Amino acid sequence: MTPFASLLNQYKAIFFDAYGVLKNAHGLIPGVDQTIGRLVESQTPFYVLTNDASRSPDELAESYARLGLPQITAHCIVSSGMLAREYLQLKVNHGTVAYLGTPTSAHYIENADLHALPIRDVDLDNAADITALVLLDDEGFDWNTDLNKTVNLLRRRNIPVIVANTDATYPVAGSQVAVAIGAVADMLERIVGKQFIRFGKPDAQLFMFAYDLLRERMPITKSDILMVGDTLKSDILGGNKFGFDTALVLTGNTPAQDVDLRIQATGIIPTYVCESAAV
Amino acid sequence: MTPFASLLNQYKAIFFDAYGVLKNAHGLIPGVDQTIGRLVESQTPFYVLTNDASRSPDELAESYARLGLPQITAHCIVSSGMLAREYLQLKVNHGTVAYLGTPTSAHYIENADLHALPIRDVDLDNAADITALVLLDDEGFDWNTDLNKTVNLLRRRNIPVIVANTDATYPVAGSQVAVAIGAVADMLERIVGKQFIRFGKPDAQLFMFAYDLLRERMPITKSDILMVGDTLKSDILGGNKFGFDTALVLTGNTPAQDVDLRIQATGIIPTYVCESAAV
Amino acid sequence: MTPFASLLNQYKAIFFDAYGVLKNAHGLIPGVDQTIGRLVESQTPFYVLTNDASRSPDELAESYARLGLPQITAHCIVSSGMLAREYLQLKVNHGTVAYLGTPTSAHYIENADLHALPIRDVDLDNAADITALVLLDDEGFDWNTDLNKTVNLLRRRNIPVIVANTDATYPVAGSQVAVAIGAVADMLERIVGKQFIRFGKPDAQLFMFAYDLLRERMPITKSDILMVGDTLKSDILGGNKFGFDTALVLTGNTPAQDVDLRIQATGIIPTYVCESAAV
Amino acid sequence: MTPFASLLNQYKAIFFDAYGVLKNAHGLIPGVDQTIGRLVESQTPFYVLTNDASRSPDELAESYARLGLPQITAHCIVSSGMLAREYLQLKVNHGTVAYLGTPTSAHYIENADLHALPIRDVDLDNAADITALVLLDDEGFDWNTDLNKTVNLLRRRNIPVIVANTDATYPVAGSQVAVAIGAVADMLERIVGKQFIRFGKPDAQLFMFAYDLLRERMPITKSDILMVGDTLKSDILGGNKFGFDTALVLTGNTPAQDVDLRIQATGIIPTYVCESAAV
């Protein structure tokens, strides 16, 4: 078990997962405000890497401000929704993009200068102008009718399907979880038998997006960066594979009593295990 | 392409899939009433093997009567729901069984002398009396709230989960499909990481159930029986593996123009290919 | 933890897994000879259900005789190879059957009155007479050249592929394991993209085969039978699903210190947990 | 169908897959020498992106020189083996690295200043100094004994496993294929139940490696780059996801008569379809 404070001086930049590392259902994880404070003070750059396409970076930053962390600005946040937006800009760039998610999440489509249409408003008999489908959030649609409609749209139109959050569940109040759009995407993909395009940890592209932003600010190499996360198979696996050192914290998905067992069972080995990201 | 009529005399008993073989969204498949008529006339036993737990055998038989096939009685029908019921009788036999499905589908639980409780009425904080969960039908519950509740129930209680329909989709009006409870079950199973117990074609147990019923009526061997279906990976794969000869009909899931390609692609080889089950 | 002796009187018949229950790499599991002796004495029928197609039932029986258990005769043994043989008899019944395995394992093909040809002797340019492929054993062939040849045969010929052992590994001396033909089959199936036909626990068909043999001897129902095994996901899952009561013993794949964790993690719940099958 | 020549002027850089695009079992694909010639002449940068860890970039370049393409130097080649090497340098950096592959492929380990040890020479009872395992090539080891040994090593030592080629098969003479180390890796991963670290298309990291090399040479954005490949699910899926335009050529894995069907079936949609990469 490594004290998190001892790591801060060893790296030139820190990448954090959001949920289970900086915050949870009850608010801020105790002590992380001091960690962020120390990073700001020492002018150590940091980024928050999140599998979240339900809100824009501005809205995500506002939520941190409300929790007492105004230092986490929109410029510090890299969301899987931003990768979806980049894909739409580079690869779709015309027509109407159907989506599953809230109107708020549709920001990532509109921000790519595309017309966003909720699945519920798609006319299956006049769907020729639909150029892509994006799965953004598990809220904002009727799971039964709109998922059936999605399957039928994908049987008629051979269009790219972008999944902007690869997580299977996310924590809600108490110790409960909710099914995330990533699990719904897996179900739809198997049903229609097509290959969806997924963005989010552990995939390298989210790490690369943040790494590129950082390299524009300063000369840095992969070994200068520490990825901090609470989940072995997204944060740690993805960070390891990308070439970063990794710190597993025990304030979220990985409880202290299970940590050895899970590292052994999965073969996903963090560089460090820390009680939390507090200093 | 083999004329279906030429097969009737070659076998002592015929097993039919229901949807896409005997009926479809528009009613009876043309000509199958004559096939059933001829079987009744020649006293050739037949069974309908269906991955359907939404209705009791009595209700399924009534639906055939309404379509003009009163010869298909409840005694001719073997549904995957009947296997779920047998499991509950043999292996659960006490307590309250939670379910996803319509009140009609809960017949299979109540018929096993167990208390059936829709997931929506489960109290997660007082769930100690829940002894099993059964996934019966894709209707009768709220997909968002009740699936989330199901995941949380299975995180708290280590109970057997029975899936009474293994299909991923089922046909509805037009050429559209709807997501079936089998696909939902796959999603839930991956989320909770546990092993569910599945009943339905292509699994051997449904074929065995019908074969046992038949053997009680007459001496017969597997080579005396023809399985007729429209779907390679449930009807034909399951029939082949069980040791039956199999006939693929082109009135449902396998369109005539795709049949060669799909047999080649899947390696699932029916004994015969017939235009339909009409004579 | 239930004493195994207390179960013997509660059931009219006992089904045993072989490896890890009756024997292991060092010989007989201590005390199982007395269990078998008591069953013989009380005229309680028993069967050994094994995912093994490497040897004929006669040879398997001889191996028990050599270990001091001559009461386990060939008539007590139900192997997955016997299901492969039944499939070949019912569904192939002509031509040449290619195989991966030892000459000894080819018994199951020859016993079905078919010509058995090791993959190494197949001529890919004259393979029209090959009517099926059977994966019998992990020994008896060159893994590199013969697996490559198998892939190329299946790209040319659309024939049924029968897997006569679904296990991924089997124990060898010390605490080591070896890769079994079931894992090789999974690899080949994914490469060629076709659907193989698998026989062995946890699939219902092996349980049914033994259950049918028993029903020919005496009137019995599923609730009269206890399945005893050391592996949750084959013996216990399969036994449960078929409707038998199940006893997990801790002398093989499931060590005592892991049993609670594994039952919790998999959701596969045995009726009883016993230290061993000794009385 | 787009003439490949018409694309050359539209992009500032071209990325090629190797096998099935530039060469095949018979040598160079006709006309690609002129394509490479024209790129060199117009000073258009190009890279060859290959899922190949069997040979070093120098050896790969020599093989192109022998085929008459000396313009494809080692600096133009990005192999999945180079990603494995980067991982070893950044994340392992001490101890002995066990491997499956030829001595030639072990170059990627030795080049990272690590001691490379073929699995055959590993002593399972003294394996504490083994810090990682790398799967490099399907040749150079005994598939039966060395794969069994690999499974037992991974049961004893919880170490990162790096897969330096994600392909399942590769073409050999005639129309035959051979099983590649990627398929073997999938089998081993399922057996040991651990998470391996895979490098190769369609994963973003190989594209990023080449994109980074290119960005060091000139200012360029993703939309300036065309990825050319013969395989939908590696070259085209990966190129699309990374944000490149993509051209599918019909000189390798995707035959002309299947192209529409496969694009429809997979939902992987290239920007262009071209007969070949010849001009």
UniProtKB/TrEMBL annotation, chains A, B, C, D:
Protein name: TIGR01459 family HAD-type hydrolase
Domain of life: Bacteria
Keywords: Hydrolase
Gene3D superfamilies: HAD superfamily/HAD-like
Alphabetized GO MF terms: phosphatase activity
Organism the protein comes from: Fibrella rubiginis
Family matches, as PANTHER family: 4-NITROPHENYLPHOSPHATASE-RELATED, OS08G0542600 PROTEIN
UniProt cross-references to InterPro entries, sorted A to Z: HAD-like_sf, HAD-SF_hydro_IIA, HAD-SF_hydro_IIA_hyp3, HAD_sf
Keyword Hydrolase: yes
Cellular component aspect of the GO annotation: cytoplasm
Lineage: Bacteria, Pseudomonadati, Bacteroidota, Cytophagia, Cytophagales
